[in-house]
Each structure stands twice: as C-alpha cells, then as structure tokens.
Design goal:
- It is a single chain.
- This protein is α+β, with helices and mostly antiparallel strands.
- The protein contains seven helices and eight strands, in the order H-H-H-E-E-H-H-H-E-E-H-E-E-E-E.
- It has helices at residues 4-20, 25-32, 36-48, 64-87, 92-102, 108-118, 161-169; strands at 52-55, 59-62, 139-141, 150-156, 177-183, 187-192, 195-200, 207-210.
- It has a six-stranded antiparallel β-sheet with strand order 3-8-4-5-6-7. Strands 1-2 form a two-stranded antiparallel ribbon.
- Helix 1 (4-20) packs across helix 4, helix 4 packs across helix 5 and helix 4 (64-87) packs across helix 6.
- The chain is elongated, with a radius of gyration of 21 Å.
Length: 211
C-alpha cells in the first residue's frame, strides 16, 4: 500500500482507537476534514486490503496487520521529527509538517539507520521495528575497547544534542568500523574510515558497538 492518503487514514484510526477503542466513521471524517462518504469508501478499500475491520453503524478497528503498519508509520514520523529538530535545528512546527510528508516515502532501512544515528529513545512503537537495535544485536560500549581493538558501530545514545551533533560530524555513523588507537583519562583517539579523530573520554559511553 503506497498511497499517502490511505496511510493517513491508518494513522488517524490508530490515534482515535487509542482514545476509545472502536472508531466511529463520523469522528474519523471530522478529524480528517472529509465527507462521511469519503471515509466509508476508503474504509472499504482498507478492509479489502486486510488493514481494518469494519461494520456499518458500528465503526472501524485495525487488524493486527493494520496496527503494525500504522505503528511503524508513527515510528517513522517520530524519528524524522527528532532528526529534523535535534540535528538540523528545524523548528518544531516545520519539522512536524516535514515528517508528515517523509513518513510516507522513507524506507524502513533508511529510517532505522537514522534512528541508530540519533539514538531515538525507545517508545511503544519500537515493537513495530523490523530491526530493533536492542533486541537482535548484542552491544558493548566503545569505552570497553582497549588499544588496538576494533568494533562496528551499532548506534548512539546521547541525551545532550550537542554531543550527538559532535559525534555525527566526526564520522560516528552506524555500520562503520572503529579502531581504538589511544586511551587516556581525558582523551580517546580512534580511527574511523581511515582517519584519526580525538574525542573526550566521556563521549565513549555514548557509542554502542556490535558484539
């Protein structure tokens, strides 16, 4: 299902269902600012596709497939919104509007990589991820490496946005190999993509490596 309009319906059905279970088509029409006839037509299309259950005069619910699809869309939105605000310094209103458009076109693989780069905090929609960073890959910290040891960057976790920007700017991208070259109490020197970079030792606890 590629149509953004259909995906908007799924997202809104998800939101309304979390507020009160079965979603009335009249309420869906109101929140989407469309006619009841348009909602009925789209709901029937979604039912044929296996994404919703629908009974006339009763309302709409998401199927298991529809729920997983909608939650993954919402996850993409949250990730892209945070990337735009935290990394690119886009204001929240513009970031929300941009994320609404991007959630329909960005692939799962690309959004998962962005999620790992920015260290998106875990929420309920992470269960919809097809490649969760904390379930399928065992990780260790960069701070655990000794001189000469190497590892592949899994993901970053930074509460401080400036720390995140610094790590991204100097090449700490998931999937890249990192080699520990020198460790002191205050400074760590590592090799990434053939280049040597120095970071403060406290930042090494923000970088997770695949085991």
């Amino acid at each position: 299902m590629q149509t953004g309009n259909r995906e908007d319906y799924l997202i809104n059905i998800l939101r309304l269902s979390e507020e009160g279970g079965v979603v009335k088509t009249s309420k869906l029409a109101a929140i989407m600012d469309v006619s009841p006839a348009s909602v009925t037509e789209m709901v029937r299309v979604l039912k044929e596709a296996g994404f919703v259950n629908y009974k006339k005069y009763q309302g709409v619910t998401l199927t298991e497939e529809g729920l997983a699809y909608a939650r993954n869309l919402r996850r993409k939105h949250h990730i892209m919104e945070r990337f735009l605000t935290d990394v690119l310094d886009v204001d929240h209103e513009s970031a929300h509007e941009e994320a609404c458009r991007m959630e329909h076109s960005i692939s799962d693989d690309s959004v998962n990589k962005i999620c790992r780069i920015i260290g998106t905090k875990k929420d309920c929609d992470c269960d919809a991820c097809n490649n969760p960073c904390d379930k399928e890959v065992k990780v260790s910290l960069l701070s655990d490496l000794k001189d000469g040891e190497s590892g592949i960057i899994s993901h970053l976790k930074c509460d401080d946005v400036q720390d995140l920007k610094q790590l991204i700017a100097i090449g700490f991208v998931p999937g890249r190999e990192i080699i520990m070259k020198s460790v002191t109490d205050e400074t760590v020197i590592v090799e990434i993509s053939g280049e040597y970079v120095a970071i403060s030792s406290d930042l090494t606890s923000r970088v997770y490596l695949e085991e």
